[in-house]
């Protein structure tokens, strides 16, 4: 019996409820075939130009993540293959995580946590005074969905918002056309740009030095965006105040020099890792597939 359902190559698995739904709706393959019309992957697994070339019927690549650094977008664009991701489903959750890292790094949470646990409080007295967040300047490197969600959450804390992107946007915050200038003007810099070669090492030693010895860096984007060796040097030498990091150059084994530093808050690439958001991300994969094959605009179209 002929299966008339669209053929899909699944390179990553969705959570079980959505995976079962996808398998009930589409002819899901786990190996390349000329019949494949769509690929479900994510930024880490990706899809190379050679893999795409082996799929002559390919019309859509649906990423199950916001990141798309492993997907050869140029190869897809050259063939007119559509691309979608799930960025809208996770922007709010990642922004919440960014604010958690921002607050923890700014107020020195790791060192205070260790201070109480070690018993030093009873021996040495109260912890030194910190600095208020109100009135400080928050620089956003990237002003897509995540960057805008961070800004919305930062405003009630009294932070002043600046941002850098390739082009100014119709937004109520201050656009800074030069990244070094953004770092110089900011007390806190939040990195929220896509990964990939275009942004590799964008946060350089010069940017970190411009942020300064009281500055805080928060990265919820990709580890590749920050020059990690320069970051380790700046933090250990006091040229940067603190950092809150959800992503690293080498995952899941971050540089031990980084994990040993007392002025860094570390989380395991978990900014979107809630049950609700992971389910919403998987749902958006299905919504993107359904919209594409029905000829409707995809909610996560890139």
TrEMBL record:
Gene Ontology cellular component annotations, sorted alphabetically: cytosol
Domain D-isomer specific 2-hydroxyacid dehydrogenase catalytic: start-end pairs: 36-302
Keyword Oxidoreductase included in the entry's annotation: yes
Keywords on record: NAD, NADP, Oxidoreductase
Alphabetized Pfam families for the sequence: 2-Hacid_dh, 2-Hacid_dh_C
Record's keyword annotation contains Manganese: no
InterPro entries, A to Z: D-isomer_2-hydroxyacid_DH, D-isomer_2_OHA_DH_cat_dom, D-isomer_DH_NAD-bd, NAD(P)-bd_dom_sf
GO MF, one example: glyoxylate reductase (NADPH) activity
SUPFAM superfamilies referenced in this protein's UniProt entry, alphabetically: Formate/glycerate dehydrogenase catalytic domain-like, NAD(P)-binding Rossmann-fold domains
All copies of domain D-isomer specific 2-hydroxyacid dehydrogenase NAD-binding, residue ranges: 99-271
Similarity annotation: Belongs to the D-isomer specific 2-hydroxyacid dehydrogenase family.
PANTHER family in the cross-refs: 2-HYDROXYACID DEHYDROGENASE YGL185C-RELATED, 2-HYDROXYACID DEHYDROGENASE-RELATED
Protein name per Swiss-Prot or TrEMBL: Lactate dehydrogenase
Source organism phylogeny: Bacteria, Pseudomonadati, Pseudomonadota, Alphaproteobacteria, Rhodobacterales
């Amino acid at each position: 019996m002929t299966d008339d359902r669209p053929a899909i190559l699944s390179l990553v698995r969705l959570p079980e409820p959505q995976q079962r739904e996808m398998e009930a709706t589409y002819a899901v393959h786990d190996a390349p075939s000329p019949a494949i019309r769509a690929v479900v992957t994510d930024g880490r697994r990706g899809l190379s130009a050679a893999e795409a070339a082996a799929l002559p019927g390919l019309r859509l690549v649906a990423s199950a993540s916001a990141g798309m650094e492993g997907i050869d977008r140029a190869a897809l664009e050259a063939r007119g293959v559509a691309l979608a991701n799930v960025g809208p489903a996770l922007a709010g959750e990642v922004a919440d995580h960014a604010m958690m890292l921002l607050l923890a790094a700014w107020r020195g949470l790791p060192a205070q946590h260790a201070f109480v646990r070690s018993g030093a409080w009873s021996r040495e007295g109260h912890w030194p005074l910190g600095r208020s967040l109100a009135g400080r300047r928050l620089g956003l490197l990237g002003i897509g969905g995540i960057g805008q969600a961070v800004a919305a959450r930062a405003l009630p804390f009294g932070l002043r918002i600046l941002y850098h992107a390739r082009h100014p946007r119709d937004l109520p915050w201050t656009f800074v056309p030069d990244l070094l200038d953004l770092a110089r003007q900011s007390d806190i810099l939040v990195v929220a740009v896509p990964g990939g070669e275009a942004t590799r090492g964008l946060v350089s030693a010069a940017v970190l030095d411009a942020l300064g010895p009281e500055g805080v860096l928060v990265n919820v984007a990709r580890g590749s965006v920050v020059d990690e060796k320069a970051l380790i040097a700046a933090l250990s030498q006091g040229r940067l105040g603190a950092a809150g990091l959800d992503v690293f150059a080498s995952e899941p084994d971050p540089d031990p020099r980084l994990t040993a530093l007392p002025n860094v808050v570390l989380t395991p690439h978990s900014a979107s890792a809630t049950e609700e958001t992971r389910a919403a991300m998987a749902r958006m994969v299905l919504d993107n597939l359904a919209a594409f094959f029905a000829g409707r605009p995809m909610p996560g179209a890139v």
